[in-house]
Amino acid sequence: MNLPSLEHSVAELLPSGTRKLLVAVSGGVDSVVLLHLLKTISSELEFTIHVAHLDHRLRPESSSDADFVRQLCRQWDLPCSIESCDIRQLAARQKISLEMAGRQARREFLWTLAQKIGAELIALAHHGDDQVETFMLRLLRGSGQSGLSAMRVHQGCWWRPLLNLRRQDIVKYASQHNLKWVEDESNRDSMFLRNRLRSEIIPQFYEINPRFGGGIERLVQQFQVDEDYWQREVTAIFDSLVVSREDGLRLSRPKLLATHPALRVRLLRAALLQVRGDLQKIESVHLLAVDDLLSASRSQGELNLPECWVARRYESLWIRRGSPALPEPFDLTLPDEGEVKLPDGRIIRASTQVEQEGESAMVVEFSLAALSQPLRVRNWRPGDRFEPLGMSGHKRLKRFFSDNRVEREVRLRTPLLVSGETILWVGGMRRSRHAVVRCDAGEIIRIELF
Amino acid sequence: MNLPSLEHSVAELLPSGTRKLLVAVSGGVDSVVLLHLLKTISSELEFTIHVAHLDHRLRPESSSDADFVRQLCRQWDLPCSIESCDIRQLAARQKISLEMAGRQARREFLWTLAQKIGAELIALAHHGDDQVETFMLRLLRGSGQSGLSAMRVHQGCWWRPLLNLRRQDIVKYASQHNLKWVEDESNRDSMFLRNRLRSEIIPQFYEINPRFGGGIERLVQQFQVDEDYWQREVTAIFDSLVVSREDGLRLSRPKLLATHPALRVRLLRAALLQVRGDLQKIESVHLLAVDDLLSASRSQGELNLPECWVARRYESLWIRRGSPALPEPFDLTLPDEGEVKLPDGRIIRASTQVEQEGESAMVVEFSLAALSQPLRVRNWRPGDRFEPLGMSGHKRLKRFFSDNRVEREVRLRTPLLVSGETILWVGGMRRSRHAVVRCDAGEIIRIELF
């Protein structure tokens, strides 16, 4: 291959086997140069090009940008898809910034189009100065290292072959090849934070250190390498932390605490990602809060994060999209012979008989004569106390639950068998010392939970 | 303990068992507040205070700052050491910035004084806004993650109990307690980059995001946790990479290449630190260069880094303070009977006899009649060729060395036995096919290297 240097550097970054490229062209100098570069190398590298343009309708002249792109593609004989989207409306509907809405609409448009036309790769015109701006923007907004690792040349189907070039290289190429482009007026609008960074703040840094941009690019590269490292470590150990995936994700607290805090915060990120599907609106301060929940002395606690609910339940960390539905309170009368159905679907059955059959966690027997009727089955209430068999005195039920590490949600659906104000049985766990069946007890009432 | 919150937060950070504290006091509001806080908690926590002040002599009024500190200590009944140092002269002599020189002189003064008076800890008045400034300053100068992890509350004997406070908290405390202080005029001098950051650039960030500082502080904390992780990983595997410490540090290239690049760059940093004693002037670009040296296709190469020399020699990476001294070129006449001493101290001895005794790497025998006199022993020169025994034709000596993975420094001190222009023996390695001793050879010359 004998190509001039800029073409060569782009060609070198093209994954082999690429047959069809979707190129995002706004009509600005960056994307026009990108398109020209790709057109130049396309026949030698045997790929075809399809151009995509999304009209954001933010400015009156935006449709003329679309016309420019259409015209350029006709002139260069390239197929082209142009669509239009009301970004202002989208931003208002989703309550996000115009920048965010534009980015989201663009990505969706490009992604869908690439699928439709069978393009393996979507080429974007971001360059090194964009990289520096993105870094500073995220720094300003409080991103952690992962966010600061900014954009990569290759990121799934997205491809940014100009990322190692500077704006001035691109402008020079445009003038060498007599390219025409449209100036995006919104680039001058200092309402957009990125523009303010570009035109006002970053130049002050360059004034202090002319090599400022290179330093940021090296830092971003280091962060990307680090991110790759963390990703591997997380992948290697994540599954060993999972206790259950039945009702949300449950991770082992002791295993999490045994990992180094630097790794742990990445494991927590990965857990949130698995549960939520993405990490939008998750900031480092949220991860610190989860870490605090994990290491605090309180054995049960909850956090509401954006689109995510995190709880510590004794030795596990429980993550769900939303908080679990709490069971309905219940208070049911239990006949001497018959059954009641609990809100969670389990059944408590009572039967009377004269022979003892023996007790277990799920079955208890009482001397019928010692009980005052009617028997009731209800959920736990604050202030409840009971007198466990084998213990003198009474115990607060809250304390009993806590000593037995019963999780909040389980407490609320645990059936209590009561007679008047007396708790006879904490269903499935422990009976009280009331109405124990003696040898000569007479009639027995047998209660089963299943 | 029943202390107001600021005192309490400082007291909580004091390592238990501290008996004597050296407090660095410039006379500015930060250090006066620090001193007041420490004085307040000192009797309850049972430590004594010694004050240190270094007069930088940068401003005409600097000696009045020293007077202020002396006066304050008299008033508060605290022992105090005041010294003076010509920072401008130090900066000029060491060719470093005034800021750097000031920092260096301060640290040395404080460290020495702490040793002398037996203080376990040196308290510094850096606060959260200093932390943000330091971060931005290092970002601007192209630091990697390690540099960006900035200052810690505890760092060896250095202690920064105000690091989690903001400047406004400190000023508020000062006014609540009617403290007096001196304004450091140099804080307003925008010649100093830090002041320009503080007064011009950082306020623009706060204007955009009022929580900017908190984001930076969280990021610094994350970096510190990460640094601790990397430190442990490096410590765990460093020694397994060391091939030799005889003449500088030699690390195994294959083992380095087998580690993840994120870890590798930290291992290289650790290696430079071991050899140099510190990492001053080592930037991320230097580490990248070492990494390139390691992974490049050239099997031998060198890099001159600040106060450090790094070479790849086949499968090892060799790091020294400076490049190794190259051996003097030599060209010595070897008598038939007798010896010559090589520049590296080894000896080549010649003796004539009639019986063959056999050859080895260190001994060769030639048929005396087949040689033209005199024999010479000299070092390798570009263009040298020889005809190895057992091979037809000749071989360039450079190629021979390279095939045998002979390192550059070893090549230069390898003795060549020559007769006229003919290389008879690459000392210690291989003989040529000239003048091989046959059964009826007559007189033999035997050459030994030891």
Gap between N and C termini of chain A, in Å?
76 Å
Number of strands of chain A: 22
Strand content of chain A: 15-25%
Helical fraction of chain A equals 40-55%
**Oligomeric state of the chains?**
homodimer
Given the helix and strand composition of chain A, which structural class is it? alpha+beta
Strands across the major sheet of chain A, in which order?
3-2-1-4-6-5
Report the mean per-residue pLDDT of chain A as an integer. Answer: 91
- Sheet of most strands of chain A: 6 strands, mixed
Structural shape of chain A: elongated
Offer a few descriptive terms.
alpha+beta; 450 residues; 5-stranded antiparallel β-sheet; 6-stranded mixed β-sheet
Tell me what you see in this structure.
The structure is a homodimer of 450-residue chains. The first copy, chain A, contains 15 helices and 22 strands. Chain A has helices at residues 5-13, 29-45, 62-76, 87-94, 98-117, 128-140, 145-148, 167-176, 193-208, 212-241, 253-258, 261-276, 284-295, 397-403, 408-413, and strands spanning 20-24, 48-55, 80-84, 121-123, 154-155, 158-159, 242-244, 249-252, 300-305, 308-313, 316-320, 331-334, 338-341, 347-353, 363-367, 375-378, 385-386, 395-396, 416-419, 422-426, 430-431, 444-449. A 6-stranded mixed β-sheet of chain A has the order 3-2-1-4-6-5, sandwiched between helices. In chain A, strand 17 (385-386) and strand 18 (395-396) form a beta hairpin. In chain A, helix 6 (128-140) crosses helix 10 (212-241). The longest helix of chain A has 30 residues, at 212-241. Chain A is elongated and about 110 Å long. At the A-B interface, helix 9, helix 10, helix 12 and helix 13 of A face helix 9, helix 10, helix 12 and helix 13 of B.
